[in-house]
UniProtKB/TrEMBL annotation:
Pathway: Pyrimidine metabolism; dTTP biosynthesis. This is Thymidylate kinase. GO terms for cellular component: cytosol; mitochondrion; nucleus. It comes from Tetracentron sinense. PROSITE patterns: THYMIDYLATE_KINASE.
Amino acid sequence: NGHNGNSRGALIVLEGLDRSGKTSQSSRLLPYLEGLGLSVELWRFPDRNTYVGEMISSYLANKSQLDDRTIHLLFSANRWEKRSLMETKLRSGTTLIVDRYSYSGVAFSSAKGLDIEWCKVKTCLSCYKHEISFVQAPEMGLLAPDLVVYLDIPPEKAAERGGYGGERYEQLEFQRKVAEHYKILHDTTWKGHCVDAPLEHATGRPDTVDGLIPSHPACYTIKVFPPFF
Ligand code: FDM
């Protein structure tokens, strides 16, 4: 129903393994939402255009080495440095489609098997209402999405899609672990929540998954889950 100056934009997050189709889906969703009269922008994390983003990019390209905790916090810092612009955009009525967000932060770092102080994620997520893991803590205070769509694809299928680009995390074995951790995140954050028209509030639209391609060539299913922070 478009925005009338009073309604804020929606924060829509797409998550999934590398090569899961986030880019295709976001470029589908963009014109779809624009067609509804909304002002929409595509964002992605990591945002490699900042100084922190450059450090992340160099790490991902194996051009620098960083301690697992350090890179984890850089990914989070990269979201923090965009937070105020994000809020301004949303308040001014622009809907943001964001390719990766805090869920990537938690799933990828916990898949590395960080030491116990950091990797209490399983335990913490299963009772996430009472306890926040060290991995999640840096995310607290960032803007919670209105909708998080996880493109669930078997890691083997993702790997078949045109190959990986050779960045640090683009290896089948590691992607399998990431998928497991996304699953934990999904199963545990789902508990106690119901997704009733998460975007209705923001845009007046009850169902935003419409613009996505539910059975696009490969074989993923789309799971929707609510914010954990
Ligand atoms: N990644 C991304 C993380 O490990 N943590 C994060 O917080 C984010 C946002 O970075 F392998 C990983 C996920 C991926 C890599 O992402 C770069 P893109 O989407 O390929 O640029």
